[in-house]
Request: fold
Amino acid sequence: MQHEIPSLKNSSIDYFFFTAHKFFGPNGIGVICSKLPTDIGINQYNCEQKLKTYLLDLDALEAWIKCLNVIEELFISGFISREVERLHKYFVENFPKKNEYVELVNPESKYCIFLIRVKDPNISCHDYCHYLEKFGIITRSGNCCSWLSQERYDVNKIFRVSLSAFNLVEEIDRFFYAINNFSPSLCL
Reply:
């Protein structure tokens, strides 16, 4: 399938990229092209004219091409779906059930995308996510979380944690450790 890359010249877009991270985790993302910087010198101006407003990110493209066959093989072989199912089950079964600060909102989710609600009215999800960041745990909240809906959830109380087939049980355990050892004083 061939896709046309629209011109970036009269656009507020800085990058075009392709992604398959919903299937492959962070390994399934790559930048195709980006705008040239506006503060370029005279020699680079000729290059800009030749490339007509965008540069291919050849390193990202080459890395994607080299990895795609391996990633595709893992996906087709069923490795991805088996691992996602295993990690989902582990996450739901081992999530701290009687935690006074957070709760799992969507254990029935078919994917490894979990919404977690901060129960304490004095703690925002922003503060809680900042606490988790100290453990190297990446979350999404507020406008960064595409799964949140103001009609369904208070966006100040919900954050998202996503797993891919390449996550380890030890990483999930580190997340649970952070949850179990949380104290409001750690948000300050």
